Amino acid sequence: MPPERVLTHPVSSSRALRLRPALILLLAGLVCGLACAPRTTTPVVAPTPRFPEYVFPQAPAALGNTPSSGRVTEGWQLLQGGQIARARRAFAEASRREPSYFPAMAGAAYAALAAGEAMASVDLF
Fold this sequence. Notes:
Largest sheet: none
C-alpha cells in the first residue's frame, strides 16, 4: 500500500507564514513605541478653587517662560483641584529643575499649608 501524501502546509497558508515575521516585528515596534512615549497628564481645572484665598505665585516677567513655570502652573491647578500630593510632586520637580525658581517654592509652601503642615510651609515661604 503506497503511503498517503499529507500536505503539511496548504498553499494558501504559505503566504501567511511569510508575512508572520513582518507582522510580529510591526506589532513589537508599535508596542515599544507606545511604551516609550512620554506620558502626559492634563490636570483637571477645578470649576471652583479649593483654596481661593491662596495667591498664585506669579513669576516676574524678567524670569521669562522657563521649563519650571509650566510645572508650577500645573501644580497650582492640581492644588486648587484638591490633589495636594500631586501638586507637591509638581512643585518639587520644578524646584529640582531650577532651585532658584522661587514660585516653585511658594507653591510648595501653599501645598504644605493645604496639607495642614503649617510649620513646613513657614520654612518654605
